[in-house]
Amino acid sequence: MNKPHLLHLLKNIYQYLLPGLQIESVNPRDPLKVKYLPQPWRLLGKGNYAAVVDHPDYPDCVVKIYAPGRPGYEEEVEVYRCLGSHPTFSECLYAADGFLVLKRLNGTTLYDCMHLGLPIPQQVIQDIDEALDYARGRGLHPHDVHGRNVMMHQGRGLVVDISDFLHLEACSKWNDLKKAYYWLYRPVLRPLRLRVPYSALNMLRKSYRLATSFKTFCCQLVLKLSCFKYLKQ
């Protein structure tokens, strides 16, 4: 996006979008509520802390706006600063006052690919792997990378959400997704070109969360018992 076009977009954001937008994050564990969005701005998606909108006159970018009082804005700005320019990630074109103007990434999430029965080539997985290695090389820690925040576009992989890349704790979601891709998707699901209903995908997602939580609980329990045994000695 050239500078005059960006300045025109920022004028629209400050004069129309921000004064009229009404968003609220009631519970940090639930998606926020968008009570009002000025026309012709459109809601593309929303998370627990932020909403993503776009304007039909600016098709090459999106605007991510954080709900008042919710964390993450400064961290996301820092992540984009560290990433710089890379074809698999978006870029931050402007950041101030709790919002970011980001380069638009077009594509279909791997989650939606499963629902639509779209074949996911191995190149997509390799692209995302290489992008995450690039992020690690820039001092970041890829976190919360799963089927809903990575995309496929023209047979190549894209990473949509990088907001948690400053988190230091280990995250196995991407490695677990890759195991499912190589062990289940490629040998079984892809040849059949099955369209998986969203209800089944949501059930799998919830089962994975439950299994991960149970695994974490068991690891913590073993650690505590080991410490207790050591202290008794």
Report on the architecture of this protein.
This protein has 233 residues and is of the alpha+beta class. It has 2 domains: 3-103, 2-Layer Sandwich (Phosphorylase Kinase, domain 1), CATH 3.30.200; 108-196, Transferase(Phosphotransferase) domain 1 (Transferase(Phosphotransferase), domain 1, Orthogonal Bundle). Helix content is 46%, strand content 18%. It has 6 helices and 10 strands, in the order αβββββαβββααββαα. The longest helix has 35 residues, at 198-232.
Mean pLDDT: 88
CATH architecture of the largest domain: 2-Layer Sandwich
Helix content: 40-55%
Number of strands: 10
The arrangement of helices and strands along the chain is HEEEEEHEEEHHEEHH
The CATH class of the largest domain turns out to be: Alpha Beta
Blueprint of the fold:
Layout: H1 3-20, E1 22-24, E2 33-36, E3 42-46, E4 50-54, E5 61-66, H2 73-83, E6 92-96, E7 99-103, E8 108-109, H3 110-116, H4 122-137, E9 150-153, E10 156-159, H5 173-192, H6 198-232
Antiparallel strand pairs: 1-2, 3-4, 4-5, 5-7, 6-7, 8-9, 9-10
Quickly describe the structure.
The protein is of the alpha+beta class. It contains 6 helices and 10 strands; from the N terminus they run H-E-E-E-E-E-H-E-E-E-H-H-E-E-H-H. It starts with a helix and ends with a helix.
Key structural traits:
233 residues, alpha+beta, Phosphorylase Kinase, domain 1, Transferase(Phosphotransferase), domain 1, five-stranded antiparallel β-sheet, three-stranded antiparallel β-sheet, 10 strands, 46% helix, 18% strand, globular
